[in-house]
Design a protein that fits this description.
The chain has 77 residues and is mostly helical. 62% of the residues lie in helices and 0% in strands. It is globular, with a radius of gyration of 13 Å.
Amino acid sequence: MRQPGDDTDRPWRKSRLAARILFRKEAGRMTARDRRIAQVLARDPEVTNRLIEQGVYFLRIGNRKHEFDQNLGLVAR
C-alpha cells in the first residue's frame, strides 16, 4: 500500500503521460495543452527515454513500434 509522501511511482506516471502525448502527436490530435505539458516533461530529469519507451509498450503498441517511430520522425524512413 502506498504511503502519503511516497513518490516512487512518480517518474513512471510522468513517462506514461509523455507516451500518451506521443500517441496523440502521431495521430495528429496534439493540443496546445499537450504541447505545454510535453515541454515541462522534456525538462524533467525524472522522465527518461527508457521510461517513455516502457510507457509506449505499456500502452500496447507492440509490433507497431518501428512504424510509430517513423511517423514521429525518430528514425529514418
